[in-house]
Amino acid sequence: MKYILLVIAALVILRYLLRHKGVFMKNMAEPLVRDPVCGTYVPRQKELSLRTQDGTLYFCSAACRQRFTERKR
Amino acid sequence: MNFLEVDLSTSSVREGRIEAGLSVSYAGGRGVTSRLLYDSTGPGEDALSPEAPLFFGTGPLTGIPFPMAGRYIATAKSPLTNTIFSSSCGGRLGVYLKKAGFDLLIIKGAASSPTYLSIEKGHVQLHDGAGLWGQKKGEVKKRLREKHGADISILLIGRAGETGVLFANIENDGRYLGRGGLGAVLGSKNLKAIVIKGKGKIRAANSEDLAFVGYECRKWLAANPVTSQGLPRFGTGVLLNFMRETGLLSTKNHRFPAPFESSKISGEMVTSSLLQRKRACLFCPVACGRVTKYGDGPEYESLWSLGVNLSLFDIEKVAALNGLCNELGLDTISTGGAIGMALELSETGVLGHAIEYGDAEVVRGLIEDIAERRGLGEILSLGTKRMGVRFGAEESGIQVKGLELPAYDSKGAYGNALGYITSNRGGCHLPGYLIGAELLGVPKLIDRHGLQGKASLLALYQNLFAFMDTLILCRFASFAVPGDYYARIASAVQGTKITWEDALKTGERIWNLERLFNVREGVEADRLPSRCSDVPVDEMLREYYEVRGWDELGVPTEKRLKELDLC
To answer: What is the dihedral of CA B286, B288, B291, B294, to 10 degrees?
Structure first.
């Protein structure tokens, strides 16, 4: 009986955590980062990023990312 | 914040919760939807492409019986201005959305054929809307009520939204998301209407404190002459005579001062000769809305744009034209602006059509042509900026960043003119509304032709109003409720201490984010139409950039963005 109650309590807590997971994630919105090619500020989107020796760079578009890699070459 | 995302391309629905950090940094409404739009839109994306999202956002006050707070915000990229565009509306969609368990509705994708969306009793459904497409609004509402019941909120577009007029509006329960062409965004998605029914309860974090704050706000609204007398008795049209006498009302496409006979179509005349009943948004004690036999309105801006501006001074005719715009789903300011420009071009011989000011039948025909995008109406449906390019007459297009100027002549109040050029949605008086200080003495009367200090005052009001749009309070509350009190309201509803400085910083963060969006889109420089070039805005603009911490081109600096936790 004790174990059943414990399982139910754990499920209730888990459900609460899942429903309110945003609350436990962050308390400020993600900062924007500057696209090194065109200078506009962009959100950190993985699909438009590039890992370099100086860290991860983020781009506003695939065109900017391509221009950056061409310049590097 | 709970969101509901509807992808019309795949007919799929997703529910979820957005990061708490977003609501901390941007509070709600305009802040949250602007950030989501910023993050989900790539530079140069077509505002009418299927990928372009449209957000309907509520605020922490939405749904709570708090005076002037029964509102919501819609945000999208405007097809008319290519700027970020937030619009506040007093229809019931926001309250019902919240009662249905959502703080935010995201519409993306495009349906392959006309569709409408219903949200009721926990069910989200897309329905065939082919039978509603092209129908009169009254018929559409009747059919939707027959199917979904009487107690629903209906948001819908008119014919202009269906055909893609760049300044088509959206109607929600007799109130409008008027400007910027958000109706064309819905039309491009083949979404005719949204029906919402919500029955849930909405509670504030600190309901006792909020009840007291609401009581204080009601007292202020009852004590202020604008919110207790002027607006309730005569609607927004009460401004017309005052603006004419102070020289802010113009006629014939901003070329001449309005004549005395403008008083024939004032708010007082609407009340004495046409008014059937007043209309209030939910929980609003002011009730500035008018209903006549021609439907909703006409409001002050429409009395000017379709009346004084076009040399029409017959109240019945102006109200009928306003009703026609409502039926077809057209923003009355931009419609009047486009027609006013066409009439000027006809007068000066640029346009090969013999049409004249003061002829209501000509105006009626042009409105219908705009909505159907046929004949001359096809060009007019693109707005005055594009008309200027097409006819080689850019000086006759009275717009800022593509948005037609409203009913306050730039020459009459310099701070308001600075507001037009720095507004993140183009030529609009609402984001800063210095008319309050320059003409109405709210909070204090200042020299309307003075330059000193206008930049910092405007920036302060733009930040404050951006914060108000997160709570989402009607702009008219600012006539009566002191600026610093909004932090107190926010504290009461959120259940956490929010200072005046916090409130202004949130507003400034939103303002800078919107500016970044426009910079990313390559939106044109901050300047008045050439017809208003005698307004000395350059000095104020330099000061404004300095106050904002932007560079000399008006681009936010990294230092300022870091201070605002934006980067």
So the answer is: -170
